[in-house]
Amino acid sequence: MTDRVTTTQVQISTRHTAAKYVQTSAGLKRRIKSLLACMLSFSFLSALPILPMQALAQFESDTVPPEQIEQWLQGMSVQLIYPETIEAGQTFVLHAHVNNGNDQSVRVSIGERQNDTDVYALQRCHIACGTQTIAPGQSRYITVGQMYYADATLKHMPSVTIEPLLSVMPTDKGVKLPTPNRALDSVSVAVNNPSDLPAPNAALFPVPERQPLVLADLREPEDQLLVRDPNTGYDWIRLHVSAGLRLEDALYALATEDYLQGFQLARTSQVEQLLLNYLHAQGQAAQALSVRGPAADSEFGAPLAEFVRLLSPGITDTILAVRGVTADEPDTWETNLPVVGSASVYGYEGPPQTGTFRQSTGFSKGRYPMVDNEGGALELPGFWLVRGAPELQRAEDRASYLDDKLVVPALKIGDNSHYRAVLVNVDSRLGMFRATSLTELPAIDGTQVMSAPSFFDESSGLLTLPDLVLMQADGTESTASAIFRLMPQTEPPAFELISFE
Fold first, then answer.
1. Could you give the CA distance from residue 329 to residue 458 in angstroms, rounded to a whole number?
2. Over the chain, what is the mean pLDDT?
3. Which residues, 6+ apart, have CB-to-CB distance to 467 below 8 Å?
4. DSSP labels for 430-499?
5. CA 274/CA 286 separation, integer angstroms
6. Reading across the β-sheet that carries 181-183, which strands appear in turn?
7. What residues are paired with 418 via a beta bridge?
8. 458: phi > 0 → left, psi -120 to 50 → alpha, else beta; which?
């Protein structure tokens, strides 16, 4: 499969190509100089002007006149990167290469106009990779999000239509919402349809056979403080039990209370699997992408609401929500922050809605560096506590991959410098990873003794991981060797996987 690139240019007549040398990444703690970057090869390139129509969202500002923001919009050049052809029902990722031709640093994001007739939905990228600050004259690669087939049954369709929106916000001026934006010309991806359509979407049907979740007792007979998942054998403590606790209180209880022996903070991926098992047991054709983030319709609103009630009874809000702390590693790493994350589930109370109402359903992830209700920090309903799941511990002497996150405990850069590096998988099909953290290690740190040294070659831009541990949520592991290449002018730095054995 090849990738197609379209270019949107206004007031910049020359086409942008990848730079020969890569500029320093602001997210890196040391300067990486003189990186030779290969020219990106694309299968399709065409000029698409920004539509000379009135801005889709009106805006006003106390400090910036609309004419100035309009000029910034017109000064941007955008290349959209996407597959030329896909198979029916296939998920694919939309990327963009954006150049700032203005004399003002701007924050740029790309979204999509809502299209209720298209069965493909856009799962937006998290803001860490979907929104970028671009200095004058600089370019950045942006991961816009994943396009996935959101309907239960495949339909004959010659192409997938994408109607992208470019949004620009100045970094040093106050602009009132909504953010000003301009529509880019729509693009399309051809679809290879099998001859026997319509047929069930292979990603959704048949619905995996799952048993319903059941209530069980935790401390006393009939207390029903547990939710048992017979599909995995895991026990979950209902979230209202730990509501209002600080993180330190919850961790202390796990270490000292007899009735909590065997429980641990769950990973976000385990919470997601619990939710999917529940929906599949209800006969819902859900996939992971369809329950993450805001949903385009209310298909799962009612069953998600029941899931919320099951895990956290007593909620009476119009839009039900349950949010809890997980054991996920945060995207950014600081030694003074506990390693926690959060997982949330939302569901609408009542019948499915129509018209312009957009419910906030689904599953989302975010980082919570601390949970301190008494100190005035954000109050969380509880903690995702699970029993029966294997305790997953990353190796301290080898690179490891778990839950789309690749962690290198001691990455050698240069002659004597070592860093703790974290990369996140943003596109499995293209093998694209984005660096979210690079922390320099002390000169005498035992973690630098690696079983097989991982290193970054400054002259070639190659990241070599000779001993990579692939960790599964069920506790199984395998090993591999991998080589990544730094992509030019990416912020945060992005790497493409070029070798995997």
1. 28
2. 75
3. 398, 399, 450, 451, 452, 454, 479, 481
4. TTEEEEEEEEEPPSS-GGG--SS-EEEETTTTEEEEEEEEEE-TTS-EEEEEEEEEEPTT-SS-EEEEEE
5. 12
6. 131-134, 106-112, 164-170, 181-183
7. 412
8. alpha
The DSSP element (H or E) to which 301 belongs, if any, is helix 301-311
Structure tokens belonging to residue 119: 């069965």
Please state, in angstroms and as integers, the Cα–Cα distance from residue 477 to each residue in 35, 209, 232, 277, 496, following that order.
34, 26, 18, 23, 23
Question: On the CB side of 457, how many CA atoms lie within 13 Å of its CA?
Answer: 12
Task: Give the pLDDT confidence score for residue 58 in this predicted structure.
Answer: 40
**Cα within 13 Å of Cα(444), Cβ side:** 0
8 A C-beta contact, residue 414 and residue 459? no
Residue 248 is encoded by which pair of tokens?
Answer: 């330190």
Tokens at 381, concatenated: 């309903």
Q: What is the DSSP letter of 70?
A: H
Q: Which residue has the tokens 């679809």?
A: 191
Contact 75, 101 (CB under 8 A): yes
List the one residue out of 215, 204, 323, 212 whose CA is nearest residue 268.
323
Cβ atoms of 420 and 410 within 8 Å: the answer is yes
DSSP state for residue 18 in the 8-state scheme: -
* Complete DSSP assignment for 146-175: EEEE-SSB----SEEEE-EEEEEEESSS-B
Q: How many residues does the chain have?
A: 501
Lowest mean pLDDT among 218-222, 402-406, 491-495: 491-495
Give the closest residue to 414 by CA, choosing from 459, 369, 451, 373.
Answer: 459
pLDDT of residue 372: 47
- Residue 431 backbone zone (phi > 0: left; psi -120 to 50: alpha; other: beta): left
Question: Rounded to an integer, what distance in angstroms lies between the CA atom of residue 179 and that of residue 58?
Answer: 8
- CB of 223 closer than 8 Å to CB of 241: no
Torsion of CA 420, 425, 430, 435, to 10 degrees: -40
The C-alpha atoms of residue 483 and residue 492 are separated, in whole angstroms, by: 19
Q: Which two tokens stand for residue 122?
A: 């856009």
Question: What predicted TM-score, i.e. pTM, was given to this entire model?
Answer: 0.75
Query: Which residue is it, tokens 């839950």?
Result: 403
- What CA–CA distance (Å, rounded) separates 401 from 410? 14
For residue 13, pLDDT beyond 50: no
SS3 call for 177: coil
Give the C-alpha separation, 441 to 447, whole Å: 9
